[in-house]
Amino acid sequence: MKLSLIGLPGSGKTTLGRQLAAHFGLPFLDLDAEIEAQAGRSIPQIFAGEGEAAFRQLEAAVLRTVLAQPQPLLLATGGGTPCFHGNMAVLNEGSFTLWLDVPVPVLAARLQAAEGARRPLLATAGNVESWLNETLAARQGFYKQARLRYPGTASSVSEVAAQLVATGFTA
């Protein structure tokens, strides 16, 4: 089975994803890293050279390729992945989806300083907390379609894993 993590930037999709993958004995894949590997350049370079629309098309194509593979996987998506090109439906059809719903003030604290500069949409955001609130308002309808919502910050990997299993996820 595949497990896909969705949520705003800074919600822990990659960090928690690696830990959950180890817990369940699944290979881990970060969708952004896969996009960069296939494109041969960084996401900021793609945004700068081709724009967000081209990035979103590439993201959708890579997502479909990854989810079409038969082997089990834990996938950390980009924050906007579920919101474009029917990707949320693709995620729900091809994997068990988990929304990491972390409070905006926690996310803002995590994303302050140098971390935000690596993320193209945050690099020009100005006030990070305002950007996160606006982005959550725009994306929440997609995120709510996830099979499971994990509110707050994870207190332990085993707690998140137990909720996943209780909801029907099997690795």
UniProtKB/TrEMBL annotation:
Transferase recorded as keyword: yes
Main location: cytoplasm
UniProt cross-references to InterPro entries, sorted A to Z: P-loop_NTPase (IPR027417), Shikimate/glucono_kinase (IPR031322), Shikimate_kinase/TSH1 (IPR000623)
Binding site for Mg(2+): 14
Cofactor: Mg(2+)
GO molecular function: kinase activity
Keyword list, A-Z: Amino-acid biosynthesis, Aromatic amino acid biosynthesis, ATP-binding, Cytoplasm, Kinase, Magnesium, Metal-binding, Nucleotide-binding, Transferase
Root EC class: transferase
UniProt-annotated binding residues for substrate: 32, 56, 79, 139
Gene3D superfamilies per the UniProt record, alphabetical: P-loop containing nucleotide triphosphate hydrolases
Keyword ATP-binding attached: yes
Cofactor note: Binds 1 Mg(2+) ion per subunit.
Subcellular localization, as worded in the UniProt entry: Cytoplasm
Catalytic activity: shikimate + ATP = 3-phosphoshikimate + ADP + H(+)
Residues that bind ATP: 10-15, 119
E.C. code: 2.7.1.71
SUPFAM superfamilies xref list: P-loop containing nucleoside triphosphate hydrolases (SSF52540)
Cross-referenced HAMAP family: Shikimate_kinase
Subunit structure: Monomer.
Family as reported in the entry's similarity comment: Belongs to the shikimate kinase family.
Function: Catalyzes the specific phosphorylation of the 3-hydroxyl group of shikimic acid using ATP as a cosubstrate.
Protein name (Swiss-Prot/TrEMBL): Shikimate kinase
